[in-house]
Input
Amino acid sequence: MSIQDLVRAIELVRKLPKTSFHGPQPEALIQAAERALGLAFPLTYREFLLRLGYGYVPGSNFYGVIH
Output
């Protein structure tokens, strides 16, 4: 998925009823998660975390990082 695809998907998700996202998440938290896991998240996943954080649409969960 490209960043452009992700941005479009986020735009569509934000228009859906009954969605719940808890974000954006701060850069420092994302970096701490990467350090704790010993890896670097893909750019599209980082962008998702920075914009939406984590949440769900009916029938699907979208995992992220939380405090």
